[in-house]
Amino acid sequence: MLTDLTSVAARARAAGRGLGAFNVVHLEHAETFVAAAERVRQPVVLQVSQNAVRYHGPLAPIGAGVLEVAHAAQVPVVVHLDHAEDTDLVREAVALGFTSVMYDGARRAFADNVATTAEVVAHAHAHGVSVEAEIGEVGGKTGPHDPSARTDPDEAADFMALTGVDLLAVAVGSSHAMTHRGARLDTDLIRAIGRAVDVPLVLHGSSGVADDEMRRAIEAGMTKINVSTHLNRLFTTRAREALDADPDVVDTRRWFRPGNAAIGDEVARLLTLYAG
Ligand code: G3H
Ligand code: ZN
Q1: Does residue 20 line the site of ligand 1, with CB under 6 A?
Q2: Residue 146 predicted with pLDDT over 70
C-alpha cells in the first residue's frame, strides 16, 4: 500500500532499523523492488530522481506507473522524488500523489538552501507530503567528490529549526556513484548529528558502503539508506552475461529478466540486512 515516509521512517528510527530506498529508472525497477520487499515483508521506498525524470521527459508516465505499483503492494511503499533541484518538479510530484519529496539545495549557500527548502516544506506539508533535504553536500553525482565533506551538527540543528524538514540527508563519508564498496563512514559524526536533530537521517551514496560498515552506520543512527549504482551495476553485469550467452537474442525480456532477478535478490538481501 502507498504510505507516507514520515511514519515509516519514524518507526524504523525508533526501532533502530534501516529503511531501504532504491532508485527507479524503469518501471521494472519498481515492480522488482516491491516484489523483493513483499518477499521479506519489509517496507520500501521507491525513489525517482530528477535525473531519471529528465531521461523520460515528463514525470507523469513513470510517476503514475510507480504509484500504481505502490498502491497494489502488500507492504508499505513510499513513492519519493529524489534529488530535485527544480521546485516546479517538486510541485508536480506533490500534485501527482508522491508521498515524499527531496529538495536538494546542498550545492547552494546555506541561506538560499534554507529559504527554498522552507518554501518546499510549506507547500508539501499543506498536501500531506514529507520533505527530505540535504545539508553538507554528498558529492559524486556530476563531478568529483570531496571525500572530506562533512555535515556540521550545529549547522544541521540550525537548518532543522529554520526549515522543519522531515528527514535530513547528511555527509558522513559516503559519495555517490561508487562502484567499489570501500567507503568509511564517520559513525561518531552520525551519533553527534543524531543528537543534534530530531528527525531520521538519510545516507546517500550507499553503493560504496560494505555490509558491515552499513550495519555500524545503522546502529549509530542512520535510517533511510539510498542505493542506486550498486543495483545498476548488478543489473548490467547480469544482462550483459545473458546477451553474451545468446548473440542472436532479440526479445528484450530475455536479458531484462535475468537483470531484474539479480537486483530483486539483492534488494531482498539488503532490506533484511538493514532491518537487522
Ligand atoms: O539518491 C540516491 C542515492 O544517493 C544513490 O547513490 O548511486 O551511490 O548508491 P548511489
Ligand atoms: Zn543521493
Answers
A1: no
A2: no
Residues near 275 by Cβ (< 8 Å), separated by ≥ 6? 17, 18, 40, 42
The grid coordinates of residue 217 equal 552506520
Does ipTM come in above 0.90? yes
Q: Kindly give the distance from the C-alpha atom of residue 225 to the centroid of ligand 1, in angstroms, as a whole number.
A: 9
pLDDT in tens, 83-95: 999 999 999 999 9
Q: Tens digit of pLDDT for each residue in 42-71? A: 999 999 999 999 999 999 999 999 999 999
Residue for grid cell 550507499: 206
Residue 250 has which C-alpha cell? 532479440
Cell of 239: 544482462
Atom of ligand 1 nearest to the CA of 230: 9
> What nine digits make up the cell of 74?
502488500
Residue 102 CA, closest ligand 1 atom number: 1
The pLDDT value given to residue 128: 97
DSSP one-letter string for the chain: -B--HHHHHHHHHHHT--EEEEE-SSHHHHHHHHHHHHHHT--EEEEEEHHHHHHHSSSHHHHHHHHHHHHT-SS-EEEEEEEE--HHHHHHHHHHT-SEEEE--TTS-HHHHHHHHHHHHHHHHHTT-EEEEEES----SSS---TT----HHHHHHHHHHH--SEEEE-SS--TT-SS------HHHHHHHHHH-SS-EEE--GGG--HHHHHHHHHHTEEEEEE-HHHHHHHHHHHHHHHHH-TT---THHHHHHHHHHHHHHHHHHHHHHH-
Q: Check: CB of residue 177 under 8 Å from CB of residue 183.
A: no
- Indicate if the pLDDT at residue 227 is higher than 90: yes
Instruction: Give the separation between CA 10 and CA 86, rounded to whole angstroms.
Output: 27
